[in-house]
From TrEMBL, chains A, B:
Signal listed as a keyword: no
Residue stretches making up the Beta/gamma crystallin 'Greek key' domain: 52-98, 105-146, 147-195
Family membership noted in the UniProt record: Belongs to the beta/gamma-crystallin family.
Organism placement in taxonomy: Eukaryota, Metazoa, Chordata, Craniata, Vertebrata
PROSITE patterns: CRYSTALLIN_BETA_GAMMA (PS50915)
InterPro entries the UniProt entry points to: Beta/Gamma-Crystallin, Beta/gamma_crystallin, G_crystallin-like
Protein name per the record: Beta-crystallin A2
Keywords assigned: Eye lens protein, Repeat
Amino acid sequence: MTTHHMETLGHFKITVWEEENFQGKRCEFVMECSSIMERGFRKIRSLKVESGPWVGFEYPEYQGQQFILEKGDYPRWEAWSGNSAYRTEHLLSFRAIKCASHSDSKVTLYEGENFQGRKFELSDDYPSLQAMGWSTKEVGSIKVISGAWVAYQYPGYRGYQYILERDRQSGEYRKYSDYSTQAHTNQIQSIRRVQH
Amino acid sequence: MTTHHMETLGHFKITVWEEENFQGKRCEFVMECSSIMERGFRKIRSLKVESGPWVGFEYPEYQGQQFILEKGDYPRWEAWSGNSAYRTEHLLSFRAIKCASHSDSKVTLYEGENFQGRKFELSDDYPSLQAMGWSTKEVGSIKVISGAWVAYQYPGYRGYQYILERDRQSGEYRKYSDYSTQAHTNQIQSIRRVQH
């Protein structure tokens, strides 16, 4: 076991169950899981994050809708899914978010693609970007300077979730399809830091 | 018209529609509405907050589930409802939140009722109270020192929402039924400031 493995073991732990309310088949993870079906699960219906944060994905191989999973108990799918219109009860892969820092997070939003147009640098949570002065409902591109962020389709941290990390593609999300592969919309109306 | 009215007109504005995506019958409000049915609406299916924040309620007379409404567009009920388990599509009354201050908000959480037991003073947003060091999933009582807050049943700002204001009952929520009248649970796993 390498030093890297040891560190990972110390920092991240998630337990998943096949049934709601932490019932039925269970499994603990300290590393990422690219497909829960390969562990003999049909689906995940409840989970506990003992140390995080993690990001869950609708499909295997980290594809589809994203679900931010910070420390705490998630007894049913609606505890992690913010998008009840497109009602998926799938959470089939997940991985740790290693660069989260609640106290040192910076992100710049740009009106246009490729970091063009009006911009705004944030280091705090904003449940309403419009209230902060952002004039549209859309964000064209995003540069994460430090930490990890989660952006949402609707105000008040609702709707589709987009996890944005300094560690992924150098923190550069040049067009909306870089962050919103699953949603086919560039609407972002709230954004917040991810908590370690 | 009194001075108080003039101030209210300048600070708060919400527009509601009877159908999704801002269609059908519409009405603008700059003051609270204790029953949308009295305005001839059957229900509200979409809304825009032009200046806020507001709090919406499931039932007339500010009863039932609470929904925080900050500046932005809410094209469907899932944009404001964080609780898909108990699927209510009702939002039948609403009022402005006058004491919100994103930059000056303080709240103290207590383990026991009547401000007893272990306590924690917060002035920032916490998507996971457990990650911050709060050892249980419950909060016994809450004292709002300044501003307005919204507490949530689940981590990551999901599930039942509880609006907590300095201006209401002197900011003192002595037992869980003071803040959670509709939910019959004292589970709080995340909390954040309300944005003006």
